[in-house]
TrEMBL record:
It comes from the Eukaryota. It holds the Pfam family ANF_receptor. SUPFAM superfamilies: Periplasmic binding protein-like I (SSF53822). InterPro entries: ANF_lig-bd_rcpt, Peripla_BP_I. It comes from Oceanites oceanicus (Wilson's storm petrel). Residues 7-125 form the Receptor ligand binding region domain. It is found in: Membrane. One of its GO terms (cellular component) is membrane. Keywords: Membrane, Transmembrane, Transmembrane helix. This is NMDE4 protein.
Amino acid sequence: ALQEKGSTFLQLGSSTEQQLQVIFEVLEEYDWTAFAVVTTLFPGYEDFVDYVEVLTDSSFIGWEHRGVLTLNLTDDPEGTRLRRQLREVSAQIRLLYCSREEAEAIFRAAREAGLTGPGYIWFVVGTNLGGSDQLPE
């Protein structure tokens, strides 16, 4: 369960579940009910997908879950397939679960595909994204 609002943001290395609970509170607050899930094959991605379903299925809010895109980043050095797959996601709100290195490749492809400007909102969830001076653009 969440402590009072806001305090969870300060918990370093908070679990994926806590991160998702906070994200869903933000989505609810702004009435952003349509979203898609984007994951890589990073360990724990199945649990991430399952937990998103638990949060949306058990909610009285009419979430519009627009599906799960699972990316396989191998054998795509130019990011051509990645750009095409990211363009096929219909929701402007995207919940991304991946490793830090994968996030850099995904955001590079998303930027090249025009999916990072105004109107696109990405929430990145993961256990290993913090603790670095360099954040992906």
